Amino acid sequence: MSLSKEDMLRDFDFASGRSSRLYSLPALEAAGIGNVSRLPVSLRIVLESLLRNLDGKRTTEDHVRQLANWQPQAVRTEEIPFVVARIVLQDFTGVPLLCDLAAMRDVAVRFGKNPRIIEPLVPVDLVVDHSVQVDHFREANALDLNMRLEFRRNAERYRFIKWGMQAFDTFRVVPPGIGIVHQVNLEYLTQGVYHRDGVYFPDTLVGTDSHTTMINALGVVGWGVGGIEAEAGMLGQPVYILTPDVVGVHLSGRLGEGVTATDLVLFVTEVLRETQVVGKFVEFFGEGAASLTLPDRATIANMTPEYGATIGFFPPDEEAANYLSATGRSDEEVDAFCSYFQAQQLFGMPMAGEIDYSRVLELDLASVVPSVAGPKRPQDRIVIPELKHRFAELLSKPTGDGGFGKADQSQTARYALTSGGDVLIAAVTSCTNTSNPGVMLAAGLLAQKAVARGLQVSPQIKTSLAPGSRVVTEYLGQAGLLDPLEQLGFRVVAYGCTTCIGNAGPLDPEIEGVVSEQDLICASVLSGNRNFEARIHPGIKANFLMSPPLVVAFALAGRIDIDLTREPLAFDSNGAPVYLRDIWPSQKEIGAALREAADPEAYRRLYKAFAQDNPLWENIAAVTGEIYLWDSSSYIARPPFFDDFALDPPALVSIHGARALAIFGDSVTTDHISPAGSIKSDSSAGICLRGLGVTPDDFNSYGSRRGNHEVMMRGTFANVRIRNLMLPPGEGGLPVEGGLTLSQPDGIQRFIYDAAMDYQRAGTPTIIFAGAEYGTGSSRDWAAKGTLLLGVKAVVAKGFERIHRSNLVGMGVLPLQFKGPDSAASLGLRGDEIFDIVGVEDGVVPGQDVTLRIQHADGHTSECSLLMRIDTPVEVDYYCNGGILPYVLRGLFAS
Fold first, then answer.
1. Which of 56, 325, 581, 792 lies at a C-alpha separation of 20 to 30 Å from 79?
2. 263 domain-assigned
3. Kind of pairing, strands 849-855 and 834-838?
4. For residue 686, what are the domain limits?
5. Higher local confidence (pLDDT), 185 or 501
6. pLDDT score, position 415
7. 336-340 long-range CB contacts below 8 Å, 24 or more apart?
8. Contact status, residue 720 vs residue 735, Cβ threshold 8 Å
């Protein structure tokens, strides 16, 4: 029998006595469509979206039946057209997305169409949180000074964002100074369930930040996508994903005394990254999961990209409902949340054996111990007692083996800096932890005890406190813990990502000079989720993630090469040693502070009228009109992606006569590909800005200039730590770092951007070669956009991270994967070869093979087979149209 979604409509009752309607999953199972009640909860929420959006076109009966009959160990070949309830943006990705939408309206006018056909069809929220920088940090008015600098630097961007607010009907903005997008999403934006056209349905979303997954803690299915995919979703396209495996993580036991949620998430990240959950759904369940507070769950869900999964999901239960109530949601909203999920038989934490998973992992919370992660990757966990020994190993280990190659431990007199291990940045920052009252209050309690013992933090350490929302400052103040943090230098500097996104700001120029001149291995300690090379600060090479109280502790110690379980972290005013155990707060103390800090009214008050509390935002002049009037801004420029747009897609052609633009090794991140930090004056981007009359003091960051493709093209592959293996070793046989390549056939060393422009002028296509885990990191659309604009036709890697692979397809760049033992090294690639890629000219199908033909410089030829990583039928359409945006635009014009 055929499936009708109207037949699945059912009434359901609220606890308050009222009633409404929903598309019933139990009714779907009763109709014999599938064993729905055994499906993972996250898949059932996706299934509800398929059922509710069943239209016989984008979403078909086959889609519903296939997911309803999901088998845990099946081969995954079917795609899911997932229609989300809303979309969340942050400003670094939201501004270029707005640029694309504005440019698409220009194209509509060019073809005689109504520009308003370019309009978000689902609600969109943009939270401005990424651009604030820590310039001031220990001054009493540091927050105000940083905010004023932020608005001076970003006024052009903010005017453009305000234009978007009035140009698009479904586009809302949370202005600067309110909080980090993921915490604002958790505390304010989500309602848990929504009501539209007389029907209730779950909150689902995608966001243009990989840490969108933090919302999974509330039972909300959502994940990070590139801005390219988000634009398509805004314009009515489903988000297409391959039907996933679902890994169940059975949590048992409870966290021990002195162990934080940060320790837990670093443990989970290490274990799940080793288990290879990349591209899979992860769903937590069991007694241990039920015992975790919602903020602890949010900490685990936030770092889902670090362990590589698509989502890190906790099913909706009483704890989620309590959190909604505690953060100021109305009784009616909480009632709707509970009643809806109970009616769908989705409410409550599943126990062992109740659900069929592709695989079940067992994790005992009692086995978690205090840890940090670093110095270069979030999955590289080090337990606290081993940190001193491990850092010493890394200090002397050769750079080619992941170390720092520094055997000399001699002292440097100025600033008491040694050759390794000095902490120069200590930042309580990032959504991972600043959304968690438990660890934030623990940091305050530790600071209170330290101040009582007369301890201080060295003035050479740049300290900062960047809460995820204003509520954090409120409860720290209520608990009397803001003052001791300030006395140690941890003053509130901003409500934004700051250090974790690369906006740590400058260090003292003399200290930076010493570090640079003597190539010292100094450290940053931060409560963030990312510590990739050159992300935190270009001059600091060892970066460690840890809980907020440990950030304060290592700031007091002043060095990373210390065993805090045995050595004193400092000496008090009487010269007596103070050990970490002396000032570490107990769970009882933290619990008492939590009870004192709980105040639902604070959430309602602080989120009620946030624009009115922000005169700097109100004073930004708004530009009006349906079409944006592009000017000579160095921040906002019309993107070139639609310059050659035609109503019919171009014919597919093979790639012939290509050159290698770069050859990279393993773990090249989107930070390496498209940096978000500071712009160096002597870089290609810096030279461009100086040519526009911008002084280095006003360069701002790459992230803040994502609305200008001229800057971003020059920043692509320009990270100061990226290593192009085409380059011969430098001084002392060390790898050469920075955005350089050898142009061919002359072999001259140049900026990658300059070589790319010469190749384009000569009509020579280029290829990027890379190792495993290519594109890990933040969901940076410019990592794909910049690759395209440099003229790269294909990226050939040992493996891709999920979002970046998708973004490459979305920009019309071909992702290809080496098969078996093949790699750039095994093929002997040096960068002076000529390449052909054949096999696409006769059509493209998901997962097909193509052939790489290599003409080596000595005249001999070789070839190998590559797997095309176009994974789904809709991605074929995107690639054949030259990318997802031309595909969507042609569809809108045709309709």
1. 792
2. no
3. antiparallel
4. 640-894
5. 185
6. 52
7. 336/14, 336/191, 336/192, 336/193, 336/195, 336/200, 337/191, 337/192, 337/193, 338/15, 339/12, 339/13, 339/14, 339/15, 340/12, 340/22, 340/193, 340/200, 340/202
8. no
Same structural domain for residues 344 and 385?
A: no
CA-closest candidate to residue 781, choices 738, 739, 813: 813
What pLDDT is recorded for position 590? 95
How far apart CA 48 and CA 309 sit, in angstroms, is 22
Select from 598, 631, 660 the last residue of a domain.
598
Per-residue pLDDT at 283 exceeds 70: yes
Structure-block tokens of residue 868:
């095309």
Same domain as 677, residue 816:
yes
Two tokens, residue 130: 């990424």
pTM of the model: 0.89
CB atoms within 10 A of CB 549: 29
Which range, of 554-568, 583-597, 673-687, averages the lowest pLDDT? Answer: 673-687
Are the C-beta atoms of residues 147 and 496 closer than 8 Å to each other? Answer: no
Domains contained in the chain, number: 3
Statement to judge: residues 330 and 375 lie in one domain: no
Residue with structure tokens 């101040």? 451
Which of 140-144, 245-249, 531-535, 853-857 has the least mean pLDDT? 531-535
Any domain includes 562: yes
Answer yes or no: do 707 and 839 share one domain: yes
Q: What is the pLDDT of residue 412?
A: 45
Q: Which residues pair with 692 in a beta bridge?
A: none
pLDDT of 80 strictly over 60: yes
Encoded amino acid at 387, one letter = L
Beta bridge partners of 239: 82
Cβ atoms of 548 and 443 within 8 Å: the answer is yes
Q: Residue 171: enclosing H or E segment and its boundaries?
A: strand 171-174
Ordered DSSP codes for 754-767: HHHHHHHHTT--EE
12 close to 6: Cβ distance less than 8 angstroms: no
Neighbours of 197 (CB within 10 A): 6
| Widest distance between CA atoms in the chain | 84
Residues 712-734: b if buried by 16+ CB within 10 A, e if exposed: bbbbbbbbbbbbbbbbeeeeeee
662 near 769, Cβ under 8 Å? yes
Whole-Å CA distances, 156 to 159, 501, 603, 707: 5, 21, 31, 10
In the chain, the percentage of residues whose pLDDT exceeds 90 is: 80
> Looking at residue 740, which CATH number applies to its domain?
3.20.19.10
Cα separation, 714 vs 752, whole angstroms: 8
Do residue 127 and residue 182 come from a single domain? yes
Q: What's the rounded mean pLDDT across residues 377-394?
A: 95
Task: State the pLDDT at residue 414.
Answer: 43
Asked if residue 566 and residue 660 are part of one domain, the reply reads no
CB 151 within 8 A of CB 620: yes
Looking at the fold, whether 381 and 337 belong to one and the same domain comes out as: no
In this structure, is the dihedral angle defined by the CA atoms of residues 25, 27, 31 and 32, taken in order, positive or negative? Answer: positive
For residue 53, what are the contacts with CB-CB under 8 A and spacing of at least 6? 59, 81, 83, 238
Write the DSSP symbol of residue 33.
S
Work out whether strand 655-663 and strand 834-838 pair parallel, antiparallel, or are unpaired.
Answer: antiparallel
How far apart (Å, rounded) are the C-alpha atoms in residues 631 and 867? 44
pLDDT higher than 90, residue 723:
yes
Q: Report the alpha-carbon distance of residue 875 to residue 809 in Å, rounded.
A: 7
Structural domain includes residue 8: no
217/887 Cα distance (integer angstroms):
34
Residue 413 maps to which CATH number?
3.30.499.10
Same domain, 545 and 662: no
Q: Is position 68 within any domain?
A: no
CA of residue 590 relative to chain centroid, distance: 30
H/E stretch holding 206 reads strand 204-207
Q: Is the pLDDT of residue 73 over 70?
A: yes
Dig out the tokens for 797 from the structure. 């890697």
Position 196 scores a pLDDT of 93
Checking 755-759 for CB contacts under 8 A at 24+ apart, the result is 755/661, 756/661, 756/790, 756/791, 756/792, 759/659, 759/661, 759/791
